[in-house]
Specification:
Helix content is about 60%, strand content about 10%. It is mainly alpha-helical.
Length: about 130
């Protein structure tokens, strides 16, 4: 199995699989397929999981005849890696554009408490010189 950095690009479908596994911790091909939007065939899901293992982003353990898949790194580290990919690909590396998109999304109003916590984190980053 080839081990590579998570900074490599994951396809849209691979990100969906990672989202499922980061939320649940682990899952079988059938369980993952059930949670995918517009799921492909079972065989296609198995092939996708095999490719993701070859990329080094997933591991599996055997449970009788089935495999149970999980992320190859801790969820917090995986989320950071996926976020960096999104930042680079969707926002040209601009944290400002990312935050502006979150604040302007309109999908869900951000609470005063969330804004206060974000402001505190920004102020802490300023003090720390980040």
């Amino acid at each position: 199995m080839k081990k590579t950095s998570w900074s490599q690009k994951l396809s849209r479908r691979e990100r969906q699989v990672m989202d499922i596994l980061l939320a649940s911790g682990e899952g079988t091909a059938s369980e993952i397929r059930e949670r995918l939007p517009e799921p492909p065939s079972y065989s296609a899901v198995r092939a996708l999981l095999r490719v993701m293992e070859e990329k080094g982003v997933l591991t599996h353990k055997s449970d009788g005849p089935r495999y149970i898949y999980k992320p190859a790194m801790a969820p917090a580290k995986a989320r950071q890696s996926i976020l960096k990919q999104m930042l680079d690909s969707l926002f040209e590396g601009s944290r400002e554009q990312l935050v502006a998109a979150l604040l302007d999304s309109g999908a869900e109003k951000i609470s005063r408490e969330e804004l206060d916590r974000l402001a505190a984190q920004i102020n802490e980053a300023r003090r720390a010189g980040r």
